Amino acid sequence: MKNRKQGLWLISLFICLTLCLDILTFMTPAKDFSETENRTLAKSPEISFDALSNGSFADGAEDYFSDHFAYRDRWSAITFYVRSLLGQREMNGVYIGEDNYLFLIPSEPNSAALQKNIDAINDFAAYRDDINQCMAIIPNSAFIMKHKLPKHAPVPDQSEQLGTIKGKLKNITFTDVTDTLLSHNSEDLYYHTDHHWTSLGAYHAFIKIADDLQIDASACRYDIHTVTDTFEGTLSSKSGSHIYKDTIEIYVPKTDIDYNITYSDGSGAKGSMYERECLETKDKYAVFLGGNHPVVQIKTTADTQRHLLIIKDSYANSFVQFLTPYFDEIVLADPRYCYDSIETFVNHQGITDILYLYNLDTFQTDTSIADFLCITPNTD
Amino acid sequence: MSLSHLFFVFLFLPVSLILYKAVPQKCKNIILLLLSIIFIAWGNPSDLILIVCSILFNYFTALELGNFFESGKKALKNIVLFTGVASNLLLLVFFKYWAFLWENFGGIFGISRGVSVPTAPVGISFFTFSVISCLFDVSRGKEKPVKNLLDFALYVTFFPKVVSGPIVPYHQMVRQLNARTVTAESLEEGIRRFIVGLSKKVMLSNSLGIFYNAITKLPTDSLSTVSAWLGALFYSFMLYFDFSGYSDMAIGLGEVFGFSFSKNFDYPYISKSMTDFWRRWHISLGSWFRDYVYIPLGGSRCAKPRIILNLSIVWLLTGIWHGANWTFLVWGVYNGILLILEKFILDRILKKIPAALRIAMTFLFTVIGWVIFFSDSLSGALKFIGRMFGIGNGVLIDSSALYYLSSGGILLLIAAFGAAPIMSMLGGRLARSNNIFVNIVSVILFALLLVGCTACMISDTYTSFLYAQF
Q1: Does B25 reach chain A within 8 Å, measured CB to CB?
Q2: Residues 6+ apart with CB under 8 A from A222
Q3: For residue B459, what pLDDT is reported?
Q4: What is the mean pLDDT of residues B153-158?
Q5: Considering the entire predicted model, what is its pTM?
Q6: What is the SS3 assignment for A140?
Q7: Cβ-based contacts of A137 with chain B (< 8 Å)
Q8: Tell me, what's the pLDDT at B341?
Q9: Average pLDDT, 10 consecutive residues per value, chain A (380 residues)
Q10: Predicted local confidence at residue B466, as pLDDT
Q11: Residues 6+ apart with CB under 8 A from B258
Q12: In whole angstroms, what separates CA B294 from the centre of its chain?
């Protein structure tokens, strides 16, 4: 008799635990979007004869259940602790480095797309050789901050990859910031918990790129403000490591030059490129320009007669703060979201300079630049 | 649906348990059958059509075989048996091997275009073997055919075992269909075994898989010796914990519903010879081939050349059962050759070798076998094995090997411990103790395992979408 009673403990516990979590899962109002994972969560599946018979209802129900599972985000932190206890130094594509540094493991280059993009860039450079065209591809933290990686962690030689890209480019000035960044790699050039670079990293690169952009950056001084010290970036959520919180600084040039900024998907012009509301959300890096937009237009009172087009990924978002004193107009176009062709910009907005600004990981996997640069000879 | 998916563990299983408990005794089989049908139809309802056809066909075939056995009509019985088994095998060949046969041998008949075969229903290799065991058992008079069609359907479709085994032979399950009791002990033991199996799968196997995938993604040409060994070891343990984990889950769930199935794995990595290994690895498959192929062929009670032939047939079939690829066939042959060598030549020598060395040697041969098993092609397998012995590259250790050793070394050690009997000896002692304090500790430990499993199952669906943020 004694054994019988004891015998039911585990099965009762199992049923209680699972049912309680089920109830919590279904009682909590469903979220549409996960800020931690930065993606739209599965919607509740629709029941229909078709959906049931082709299995899409089953897939949908399973996805919905795991996407909306109670305390979903906290469970991943448990996995992180268990796996790090077991000595695992990489989780979900993120290296767990020293001093709470997290590194995105660079992805395999998409060589076909890369070649196509480079060809398109070369073609465009030849086609509009009247425009000063520059490119800076920023190596990633896993390469620059190598000394913080887990011991022996394999990382591609990004310096070599950049060399290969540089070798293929024609009629375009390529700025290699690798050595500059390497010489400063004892500083916080990248966030610990996010895959972006810090304003400091962008600043060092800016000083180097300024020469090729033919601007004199040496005289400018900056007001440096810390806007948050509780930033947990994408790498934190991807790996499940919630140990460290980053600080975001902004660099405001000390000039009397004013600007206003317009987003193609926003309403009206604004007086600042920093979006303070974004500091209240999870993705605090969006304080720069409010995240990614198809096109961003900045008009300044610099009066230099120069109009810059930046073709970019999100590394440029924290870089553009250094540029306002030197151009009358800065247009940022993100080919991944912008479906206009480059000609719309160069023909109508009197562009005098073009800067390609990407981080190496995105640049080597991008599949949208070539289409953006496609020249259609018959446009008005 | 998979036994190791969040949806199964948190919804399907608790609901099944409660329903099963709630219905009266005479409805228990019907509820299990209903649950099994939902389980199978869940992801792909069209799979049901084939399974229902197979059930009907084999149910009537078995009845007929039973009649012929009773009435002693041997010739007719054998014809029906042959037709029945052949039909089942044809179905299996069509779904599993047709595309492969076509691709490799179509050319002989001057056919070069590809062929499209509908995707195989889940668990076809497993349920086909189950029904064949039924036909044999009935025709041999070992067991009577099941009179109730629904009970027969439950034998074929019982959800814990239908997708990935074990292959429960008819004679083991048939009497339990209508005479089984669920006791508190069996419930307790069953759920414990299920949690252990789940942990093996989602905590150990999946983590080991991360390393295996990372290493095999490296170009084989520049793999150092240590990296290649690590890759092979990660795979060996991953496969063991994956498969034995699934088996534990199935056996545990069987127990929860009152069925008692034999174990499918018995610490294969401490085997002292390949013969021993095959008594410990995927036992249900080995016994199936023994009972329904090897023994009908004459088994070991014939002349030496005939035994060698019998063994070769069995191992060729065992290899190809695992999948339609040359690598599986060669892996089967590789095992067959080792077993034949052991049986006829090495037997006496082996007895003189100390046990520890024999275990190490058996493990070595097993791991090499797994490399053939996991490679996509034979040339890939040869290349990989070459790297393991420093052929072609000659680099003993490189920085990626050091990295995977430091990042995955502890996991590998834990895996090695987990694959040895010591862990389950401790666990069993803990679970079956009569001391109330020990009981509480054991319940807490198993609850913690369940929490760990849940965390891992959720992390596996965790996909931070970075692209939009770059």
Answers
A1: no
A2: A203, A251, A252, A253, A254
A3: 83
A4: 95
A5: 0.85
A6: coil
A7: none
A8: 93
A9: 58 92 88 76 83 83 88 85 85 90 91 94 92 95 94 90 94 94 95 95 95 89 94 88 93 92 86 92 91 92 93 95 94 91 84 95 92 71
A10: 45
A11: B176, B180, B181, B182, B186
A12: 20
Residue A345 β-bridge partners: none
CA B260 to chain CA centroid, Å, is 17
Q: Could you tell me which chain B residue has the CA closest to the CA of A60?
A: B43
A59, A82, A195 ranked by CB distance to B455: nearest? A82
Count of CA atoms in the C-beta half-sphere (13 A) of B117: 16
Local structure of A288: helix, strand or coil: strand
Q: Give the span between the Cα atoms of B354 and B366, in whole angstroms.
A: 18
Chain A residues inside the 8 Å CB shell of B438 = none
B14 contacts in chain A (CB < 8 Å): 14-15, 18-19, 22
Phi first, then psi, for residue A332 (nearest 5°) are: -105, 125
Write the Ramachandran bin of A93: left for phi over 0, alpha for psi from -120 to 50, otherwise beta: left
Which DSSP symbol is given to A380? -
Tens digit of pLDDT for each residue in A19-34? 999 999 888 888 888 7
Q: Report domain extents, chain B.
A: 6-179, 186-459
SS3 A137: strand
| Partner-chain contact B466 A195, CB within 8 Å | yes
- What residues of chain A, 300 to 319, have a C-beta less than 8 Å from chain B? 313-315
Cα separation of A345 and A232, whole Å? 36
A333 phi and psi angles, rounded to 5 deg: -120, 130
**Residue B468 — pLDDT band, cuts 50, 70, 90?**
very low
**Rounded mean pLDDT, B143-172:** 92
- Among all residues of chain B, which has the CA nearest to that of A62? B7
Residue bearing the bigger pLDDT, A375 or B369: B369
**Residue A249 carries which DSSP code?**
E
Predicted local distance difference test score (pLDDT) of residue A1: 36
Amino acid A4: pLDDT: 41
Tell me the pLDDT tens digit for each residue of B306-353. 999 999 999 999 999 998 889 999 999 999 999 999 988 888 888 888
Q: Which of residues 187-216 of A touch B (CB under 8 A)?
A: 195
Residue B204 in this model has a pLDDT that exceeds 50: yes
Q: Where are the domains of chain A?
A: 2-69, 98-373
Is the ipTM value over 0.90, yes or no?
Answer: no
Q: Quick one: what percent of chain B has pLDDT higher than 70?
A: 96
Give the Cβ contact number of residue B468 at 10 Å.
14
pLDDT digits (tens, 9 = 90+) for B48-64: 899 999 999 999 999 99
Distance in Å, alpha carbon of A98 to nearest chain B alpha carbon: 13
d(CA B317, CA B22): 44
Q: Cβ–Cβ of A79/B458 closer than 8 Å?
A: yes
Q: Which residues of B are catalytic?
A: 322
d(CA A123, nearest CA chain B) in Å? 26
Q: Which of B449, B462, B463 to mutate to test the interface with A (most CBs of A within 10 A)?
A: B462
Interface with B, mutate which of A9, A137, A146, A193 (most B CBs under 10 A): A9
